[in-house]
Amino acid sequence: MSERLLACRTSTWIIGTAVGSLLLAAGVRAEEQRCADLGASCVCSEPLNTTTFAGGPDFWNPADSTTKQCSVESAVTGGAIVRTSNTITSSADATALAALPAGHAVSRFVRANNDHTGTFFVGNGVRVNSSLVRLAARWYIWHTPTFDFKGEGSCDNSKIAQFDNGALVDYTGGFHTYGYDSFSPSVDCCVSGPGPNAFIPTSQMKGKWWRFEIVMTNRSGPSFDFKMYGKNITDDGPELTILDLSSRSSVSNLTPPSLMSAILSNNHRYSPSGGCRGWIGISHYMMAGWTTNAGQRIGGAAEVETPGSIPPPTNLRLGRLADELRAIVSAGAHRPRIGLDALAAAPTSVWARPRLMSPSR
Amino acid sequence: MPARRISSALLLLMACGVLNACGGGGEPVSACDSTGTAPMVLVWDAVTGAEGYRIYVRTAPGSYLQNLEQGLDVGNATTFTATTLAAGTTYHFAVTAYDSIGESDFSNEACQTIVN
What we know:
The complex is a heterodimer. Chain A has helices at residues 8-23, 33-38, 94-98, 321-331, 340-344; strands at residues 42-46, 53-55, 59-62, 81-82, 88-91, 109-112, 121-124, 134-143, 157-162, 168-171, 175-178, 208-217, 225-232, 240-244, 263-266, 269-270, 280-290, 314-319, 355-356. By secondary structure, chain A is of the alpha+beta class. Chain A is globular. Chain B is mostly beta strands.
C-alpha cells in the first residue's frame, strides 16, 4: 500500500466496529451471489448496499458483509473502505440509481462527499496466498455528470486503481498505469496505456456506471501481468480491454519486489486550487482467485446487471467426428458455415483463429 | 439427407486421428496433455432455458481471447467443430450459455494440442 495509516487509530476503529456490530444484528446482507457461486474461489465481497458503515475516521466497515469481508489492510479486518479524515455516505441518489440496468437490486451504494479530494480506497489489500495464480477484483463505479478527471477544471489528479509496491492506474487523458520503479527492471511505465482501449473519453464515463475488472497473473513475476476490463453498463456497451501490461515490451517482463495482492478501487483526487467537481459512487466490489490460470473471470454481479442467472454448460468435452456425423444426420439440412469473419467481428478478437465449421446439434 | 454431406463427414472421420478429452468438469485446467489432429469437435450438455451458447478460446495460459459476452455465438447448437487448426498449437475452449437476461459462467475447458 502506498499510504500507511497510524496504528493508534485502530483502537478507535475497533470501538466503532463493536457499536456497529450491534446495529448489524438485524437486516444483515451476505456476500453477493457471484461470491457465493464461486465458493472457495471467492476471496471477499462487499456489496456496499447498506446504510451503515462502522468504524472511522479512516477505516470503514460496510454492514452488509459479515463473512468474506474485504480489508484494505490486514490490521483492520473488514475495513474495506479508507477515506482518511473525510466522510463517506450511503447514497440512494436517484440519478445514479436510474442509470443502473433495469431490474437491478441496488438500493444503496457508498459515495464520497461532493467535490471530493483526498484518499478514497475501496477493496481488498490483504495478502492473498500465492497459490492463487490468477487473482481478480471487480467493482462498479459511478461518475457524476459534472465529475472532473485530471486536467478538467482545477483537478490535477484522478486515480483509478491501486496495487502493491506502488503500482497503480490513473486517468490522464486516458487510462494509464505507472509506478513500477521498484520492479525489476525498474520502469515508470506508462505515458499512455498500455492497452487496446486506454483512450476512453471522459464523456463516456460521466453520468454512467462502469464495471471495472482487473485480473492479475504471474503475481511474483517474472512477467507480472494485469489486464483491466471495462464495460459501460448504463448503455450496455461492449466489454473493453482497457489496459494490458503484456502488450508493451518495456513492461512485459517485470518482477515485483514482493507478491502482488492488492487490487483496490483508488479514487484519490487532488487539486492545488479550486477543487475537483463531482463525486463517485462505488458498488459491489469483490475479489476472487484461482489456483489455475485458465481464463476465469468474475464478470457481472447478478444484483447489478444480470438479475437471475443461467448455469454454465457442463461436461464440455472433445467429441469424435462420429458425433459430428450424427449431428449432420439429425439436422438433415445444410447449416451455415461460420468462418474467420464471424469471429473477427468480435471487437476484441485479436488472435489468428482457426477456421470454424458449422455448429450443429 | 444429402448424400454428399455424409460422404464428406465420413472422409473427415477416416482422416482424423483419435481425439481425447480433457478438462472434464469442475475447475478448468491450465495444462493440456491431450494431443490430436484437426478438426476438433466440441460437445457439451444442454442447459435448460438457454437461448444459445458462446464459444471462447485461448491458446496460452491466461484470459480468453474474447471478452465477456463476445464469444462466438453458435445459437442453440450443443456441438461445434473447429477446423484448420495450427499444428503445434494448444487450443483451450470453453462455452457459456445465455438467455434473455444474461450470460453464464464459463463451462469446464476442453483442450487439445494439434499435432498434424
